[in-house]
Amino acid sequence: MSDIKNGDIVECIDDMPRHAQSEVMPTWGALYTISGLRSVEGSASVRLKELTPTCYLGGPCACGQCGWAIERFRKVYRPGPGLLESFKLKVCEPV
């Protein structure tokens, strides 16, 4: 199972439509923010902050049940300030 959760930054790694109603698709290589997750048949469907999916009922999704398969994305790991600090070289003063 994926470690992706709400608020994560993800990169699209699959932009090929699988359903006839898939008119709006994430762009391969683009970054998005996860705004919602729901379980679907042993996997998950994600909603993106920057993009609204096409609804199976027609038009932009208003039902809240549409999204993209989580497998289409990979998490982009962003280092926190603590991690960056740990990489800084500590220069010793000459004696």
Task: Describe this structure as you would to a colleague.
With 95 residues, the chain is mainly beta. It has one domain. 7% of the residues lie in helices and 26% in strands. The protein contains one helix and five strands; from the N terminus they run βββββα. The chain has one helix at residues 81-87, and strands at residues 9-12, 31-40, 43-48, 68-69, 73-75. It has a five-stranded antiparallel beta sheet, with no helix packed on it. The termini are far apart. 14% of the residues are buried. The model has no long low-confidence stretch (mean pLDDT 84).
Q: Could you say how many structural domains there are in total? A: 1
Content-based structural category: mainly beta
The total of beta strands comes to 5
Largest beta sheet: strand ordering: 4-3-2-1-5
Mean pLDDT: 84
Q: List low-pLDDT spans.
A: none
How far apart the termini lie comes to 54 Å
Q: What proportion strand?
A: 25-35%
Based on CA atoms alone, the radius of gyration comes out at: 18 Å
The profile of the biggest β sheet is: 5 strands, antiparallel
> What is the number of helical segments per DSSP (H or I, 4+ residues)?
1
Q: Globular, elongated, flat, extended or rod-shaped: what is the shape?
A: elongated
Taken in chain order, the helices and strands follow as EEEEEH
Helix content class: under 10%
